[in-house]
Amino acid sequence: MEKDILGNALLDFHNGDYTSDIITYSSLEEEDVLPLPYLFRNYEQMPNLEKQALELCRGSTLDIGCGAGNHSLYLQKKGLVVSCMDQSHGAIAVCKSRGIKKTSQGTLLDFDLGKYDTLLLLMNGIGISGRLKHIDMFLNKLKSLLNEGGQILLDSSDILYMFERDEDDGYWIPEDVAYYGEVSFTMEYKNQKSDKFPWLYLDFNTLQRAAAFNGLVCELVIEGEHFDYLARLSLKTY
After folding, report:
1. Residue 10: which H helix or E strand, with range?
2. What was the pLDDT predicted at 40?
3. What does the pLDDT read at residue 161?
């Protein structure tokens, strides 16, 4: 069974056993730190992009890739009917302990518990699609979970800035990279390492084209402070 690195870390922090953070290794950067307190931030501590997304949520809401449930908790306290889902057993255990009423553990592609007015995917939630070649399948799965008039709120980042510029002032992308936003990650916590997993960062223009191809309208809601953005997707009306 694959180690639940994120879930173990969330459970430790929630239970008062905070002694170390998560270390991430990616195909773009050698090493980075993911502080556990940030994964338990409240509304006041969230970036403006996340706050904007939460204020746009309406109706029955599914928080996809919910983590420790920060967004679900805020929306639940506002009176929205919120369900949260995550692949991590530990994350869902934390969400239940924090008082989130509706939870589901599993993958998005296997999820089939009704339709929603709002699908929320924050902290680069589109990353779970893994690779650009999966984006059509990913968007169509999201479409299948939308009520009529529903919306998808997601954020991502254009990470082109992380690549070196060439002599013509363009960017040097390795030949073996199908799309520059495809990244591989490994997480480490308390000397336990996860398997390597794919993660997708999608620039807005590529998202907009993919949305249109799959019968969705894609609007840019707000741009963040560091090449990130919040987008709203909805079903095309003919």
Report:
1. helix 5-14
2. 98
3. 86
Cα separations in angstroms, 226 against 47, 50, 133, 150, 171: 11, 14, 25, 28, 18
**What single-letter DSSP state applies at residue 171?**
B
In degrees to the nearest 10, what's the CA dihedral of 169, 173, 179, 185? -120
The neighbour count for residue 115, using CB atoms within 10 Å, is: 13
Going through the chain in order, the beta strands assigned E by DSSP cover 22-26, 32-34, 61-64, 82-86, 102-105, 116-121, 146-157, 182-189, 192-193, 197-200, 216-223, 228-235
The distance from CA 184 to its chain's CA centroid, rounded to whole angstroms, is 15
**Is residue 57 within 8 Å of 84, Cβ to Cβ?**
no
Angle at 143 between CA 63 and CA 91, to 5 degrees: 20
Cα 205 to the center of its chain, rounded Å: 18
What CA–CA distance (Å, rounded) separates 84 from 102? 6
Query: Alpha-carbon distance 233 to 224, whole Å?
Result: 18
Phi, psi of 128 (to 5 degrees): -70, -15
Each residue of 7-49: pLDDT tens digit?
999 999 999 999 999 999 999 887 999 999 999 999 999 999 9
Q: Is 92 helix (H, G, I), strand (E, B) or coil?
A: helix
Q: What is the pLDDT of residues 184-219, one digit of tens each?
A: 999 999 999 999 999 999 999 999 999 999 999 999
